Amino acid sequence: MDSPLTKTPRKVICLFGLPIDVATMDETVQRIREARRSRQRIFLSTPNLNFLIGCMHDAAFRQSVIDSDMSVADGMPLVWMSRLLGVPLPERVTGSGLFERLNTDPLPAGEEPIKVFFFGGPPGAAEAASQRLNSHAGGLICVGYETPGFGSVEELSKPDVIARINASGASFLVVALGAVKGQAWILHNLAQLQVPIISHLGAVINFSAGTINRAPPWMQRTGLEWVWRIKEEPLLWRRYWRDGKALLSLVFNKLLPHALWLRWQSKQTAARATLTSQAGVTHLKIEGFIPDPVPETVLSTLQQAASTNKPVILDLHQATGFGPSFAAQLLLLDKNLTLRDQRLQISPPPHLKRLFEWNGINYLPKASTRG
């Protein structure tokens, strides 16, 4: 089951190298239901602060988020960052909240519950989650579970394992192997899996099993859920301590300078994007300042560049700057070209190098040599 190139440009912003969809919980629920109806693949990632910090130091982990079909902000710090940069995400969209909404919202007329398969979690948790989920009528029903234990991605991806998941008839595969391994496992098996909705939702199995309680809604809304999680899982304090220190460094060294720079760009010359083709190569030239959100004319040109089936050389020497929305579109352009066995060639001019660093996309020139 393949995920086709997006015909309509995704509305995304870039936070330190990760594309984050500008989407509400309601919109995400609707997207999941549509994927179930059409059986069209959606690989959903749910980055939080720990994801973001980890992706800055792990290229494969970062690429798993970029390669997702949808990526929503599971952590309030990401929402706060977006607001500071002037590209506000509408709300936090947690994986556990999404799972709960799919289960508790009234089913659309004529639809049956979404069939779920749990893969991962601590011993006994997936079985308990299955029993609790099926103990009452709701929008979700568990049709299978597996606790594969420890092992490499390859060891947890044997053909009989994938066959059991596919044979279950599930529409929603919930993976819980730890964020890094879970994302890697999904990408490793994506081509063989016949389940349309796939996501690593690490805490969902524990929440569904009742082994861990979710924070009260007011703590979730105010960004204090981490306090509750430490109460429930004391060993998490080390992770939150490390992430908190890394966040402070990001805020003062990158986020605040970036936000201040963006505030000073209100009177820049409007952007213009042009495409030309020469000797089997597409040349994409950007001139002027690309504001947030990215103008439709520029988005259209980026879509054309991604569909040319040729390598793309991006010329930014006449560009005066861009915001997080354009940075995200560059990530998607590179991704879509890679899907077509093409590559993006980009050499940031000196006056834009700090923007590449602030947006976390300074790896793109190196990454563009893929293929």
Q: What topology emerges from the helices and strands here?
A:
Elements lengths: L11 E4 L2 E4 L3 H14 L3 E4 L3 H7 L3 H8 L3 E2 L4 H9 L10 H10 L9 E7 L4 H9 L6 E7 L12 H9 L4 E5 L2 H11 L7 E4 L3 H6 L7 H5 L3 H8 L3 H28 L8 E7 L2 E10 L5 H11 L5 E11 L1 H16 L4 E3 L6 H7 L4 H4 L4
Parallel strand pairs: 3-4, 3-8, 5-6, 5-7, 7-8, 10-11, 11-12
Antiparallel strand pairs: 1-2, 9-10
Helix pairs in contact: 2-3, 3-8, 12-15, 13-14
Protein name: N-acetylglucosaminyldiphospho-UDP N-acetyl-beta-D-mannosaminyltransferase
Pfam family, one: Glyco_tran_WecG
GO molecular function: hexosyltransferase activity
How would you characterize this protein structure?
By secondary structure, the protein is of the alpha/beta class. The chain folds into two domains: 12-242, no CATH class; 272-367, Transcription Regulator spoIIAA, CATH 3.30.750. Helix content is 44%, strand content 18%. The protein contains 16 helices and twelve strands. Helix 3 packs across helix 8 (179-189) and helix 13 (296-306) packs parallel to helix 14 (324-339).
